[in-house]
Design a protein that fits this description.
This protein has 118 residues and is mainly alpha-helical. It has one domain. Helix 1 crosses helix 5. The chain is elongated and about 60 Å long.
Amino acid sequence: MSDVAALSSVSRLSSFAGGLDEVSSTVRTRQYLVGGAQGVQASEVTQGGFADTMAQVVRETAGDLKAAEATSVAAVRGEVSAQRVVEAVMKAELSLKSAVAVRDKVVEAYQEFARMSI
């Protein structure tokens, strides 16, 4: 859960101009892999700021993690098949890996800005 806490701190960034295209591309790739092409078309219509994009990634990742946990609990009760559990866990894993990759890029960019001399 420390990754989710770290991601929530990333969502507080409000002014980061560089790298928005790369983040948007990563989000679109994640949406395509997780939700299909329809999710990509919907995200291209609405464009927000960097902080909005990061907040959306955090919310979606947290939702995927909660869904995987709920599916796992339902499987223990015998309500869900093992296949659905594996699918939910793989989706959550992909979401978390994507969010962590975006976080790493943001931290790397921040460190570059910090090293710049004025």
